[in-house]
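Follow-up to my post from last week.
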Amino acid sequence: MAEKKLLEVELAGLKMANPLILASGIMGTTPGGLNRVAREGAGGVTTKSLGPEPREGHPAPNVVKVTAGYLNAMGLPNPGVEEFASELKEVELEAAVFGSIFAHNDDEFRRVARVLEPTVDALELNLSCPHAESLGAAIGARPPLVEEIVSAVVREVNIPVFAKLTPNVSDITEIGRAAELAGADGVVAINTLPGMSIDVGTRRPILGNKSGGLSGPAIHPVAVKSVYDLYEALSIPIIGAGGIESGEDLVETLLAGANACQVGTAIADTGMSVFRELNSWLADYLDSHQMGLSELIGAAHDY
Amino acid sequence: MGKDKIRIRKIESVKDETPTIKTFKVFDPPSAKSDPGQFLMVWVPGSGEIPLAVSAVHDDYIDLAVKRRGSTTKYFHELEENDKLGIRGPYGNGFKKPTEPSLLVGGGYGIAPLRFLHQKYAEQAQIHVVAGASTEQELLFLAELDPVAVSTEDGSRGIEGTVLAPMREVLSEVEVKTVYTSGPEKMVRGVYDICINKEVKLEASLERIMKCGVGLCGSCLIDGFRVCQDGPVVGLDQLKEFEEFGVWERSFSGRKERI
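User reply:
Got it. Predicted complex:
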């Protein structure tokens, strides 16, 4: 019980039992998958990104193991927001639910947001998928478009709206500021970095889509720096993401300025127990340093 | 990196098994050491990547039985000796080792992992086999498995219909403690219902769309269960908890569709 109280967080008015959130694209394709992760100890869960129409995704291989991470090019497969929302409606989820959405323009974003709103606690705008043509990062690297979309969605719904940012820009704080200016309740940083893996035996790119997004320990320092910079530039909450596998990774991201953190790829290496293990590590850390969770957030900026 | 890193292998030989199924023999020591029921992710360069079960092992070589179904398996069937494949895995949990009198119930090319189980353990435990297929020509591995009963959907050999009727018959005639099954989910569901009814243990291999193989993407979920990592072989107690087993499956987009 002590651990429970110690780890509670409130994010843009959203109460969570702990600061760990399942990252989008991992296990979040079905309500059953989301609930499994909630029962494994996540304070929040994010759906697979949902769009206006059903998509089957990119051809396989969709995932390649590389040094210190995974490359993936799933290609935003999803059954369409109407279909997913009707499934989600039937299920009582045991954690805060973030609905991740993608679309081509502000009108489409508005429509997808409206359909999903009644079944989720918050929205996450995917402005950062690096391997889908004219979607995700193709939009999210341009501050005026980010402003337009965030502002459209914020006006459309009455739940918190988070913008998931791409690190593949010269200055992530510019994108973060655009989101904040448009009324975002928070930002999520970072999504994957673009990458490629070529097999030397066949001399071919391995992924069906040729290139994909890099996740896992390889991108963790990029995430820490992005969160650190955003903390300096913004006053809205930040959800940190990127290669968090160990308790040290988690605390490091909080010290950089994250109010909560997403976990995804770590499930492949550690297993579903990763949420419980990270929470317990964090509780021990807070206890042994005699600190509250809120004191940890951004504490590295004192130096 | 270990087993997740793609290993490029040359095809050693190709054998026609049925009009729609070919066996590809490949040198791959990590897969040769796998447990029956585990699966591999096999990359067909230039086409796609599919999950496949090992159907037999010969020292460091494995047999992969491939049924021509979609675009990747069609392309796969064009491959010849010395063409290259990429293999990662083995993944997931295999069948428990049979120690008591057992019955293998296989439908179509789903019988492939059961053949590996039979090859590995037939001398250590009493193992009976029931095999089914759409037609006589599509019955697989009859010589190796020597089934006590066969069924075909068109009645061209054995009992007309599914494997379920001969399975029931065998269970009432010989002592069986555990049933091992693999095949289309509708059939596996039927096998499950019989096992519940007859109070026999069950080890069932499930097949779902798998995209990542490492437990991340969610495409193989049954309820909250990841067939790739938590399965693909599951026992009776686990199956009892599923709401979607044998009723609902997921398409490539993740859409829930009736089986």
